[in-house]
Each structure stands twice: as structure tokens, then as C-alpha cells.
Design goal:
The protein has 84 residues and is an alpha+beta fold. The protein contains two helices and five strands; from the N terminus they run βββββαα. β2 and β3 form a beta hairpin. The longest helix has 18 residues.
Amino acid sequence: MRLHQIRSFAAGTWIAPGRGAREIASAITGRPIASAGNSDLDVQAMLDHARGVGGPALRALTFHDRARMLKALATHLGRHKQVL
């Protein structure tokens, strides 16, 4: 079985697993099914992005906007639960 490569969304950019990536094991079999992470992730850039971009965008949403987003996420995950 081929390991899935789980990319990270960090500071507005998708970053593929790289040096320092960790294996993710199946909850059912215990066998590795994916690889995620990267030692080159810039934590300070991620904090700056969250504070300068993510935080203000989230605070601009209403309670109902956030509820709609959560419902859309739950619906998406529900449709793909067999794969997940």
C-alpha cells in the first residue's frame, strides 16, 4: 500500500511532507497509511499569518456565518467518511 502524502496549510501556503515528516497509523490495523509534517515549517510565519490574516477574517464572520461553515464541513466529512 502506498502512503498518502498529507500536505499542511501553513501561512497561506500548502506544504508537502518533507524532512521530519511523521507516519500516521491506521486506527484499525496499526499499519502506516500516511505521512504528514515537515521540519521546515516556519512557526513564526504561521503565527504572524494567523494573527494578521486568519484572526481578523474569523472575527469578521457572524455567528451564523461560522455555523454555516461548520455545517458545510460536517456535511463534507459525512460524505467522505468511508474514505476517511
